[in-house]
Write a structure and sequence with these properties.
The protein has 118 residues and is α+β, with helices and mostly antiparallel strands. It has 2 domains: 40 residues; 56 residues, no CATH class. 31% of the residues lie in helices and 27% in strands. It has 2 helices and 4 strands; from the N terminus they run H-H-E-E-E-E. The chain has a 4-stranded antiparallel sheet, covered by helices on one side. The longest helix has 30 residues. The protein is rod-shaped and about 95 Å long. The model has no long low-confidence stretch (mean pLDDT 79).
């Protein structure tokens, strides 16, 4: 090893140890910053995420699906008798609104309609 600026080997060894220590501190600092920034909360949530966290439990009904149509989110629910309820997500009010009820809409094809049909 060539000791250009140092004539004493003990001094050279100390300098190399300090350089190694500083390098470890730099790497540890960078790693800590990356770790902390990756754990930071993400404030921007999508319409789907907002709607799913706000969905209420409907007694006696099971969820038959969530659908996205014409930039709106809908949820279809069926009860044990085959009745169908449609809900629509209102992004302005941050709530689900019941928009349609179909008697036997989950069992019989002629009664099964979409959320926006007549």
């Amino acid at each position: 090893m060539d000791y250009i600026f140092c004539t004493n080997r003990a001094k050279a060894k100390i300098i190399l140890e300090l350089i190694g220590l500083n390098l470890c501190q730099i790497l540890l600092t960078i790693w800590t910053i990356v770790l902390l920034s990756s754990c930071a909360p993400y404030e921007q949530t999508s319409k789907w995420e907002r709607s799913m966290t706000q969905f209420p439990k409907i007694e006696g009904y099971i969820n038959a699906g969530f659908f996205s149509m014409n930039d709106a989110i809908y949820s279809q629910h069926c009860d044990g008798h085959g009745n169908q309820i449609w809900y629509k997500w209102d992004d302005n009010g941050q709530l689900w609104k019941q928009i349609k009820y179909n008697t036997l809409g989950c069992f019989e094809n002629e009664n099964a309609t979409g959320p926006e049909s007549g």
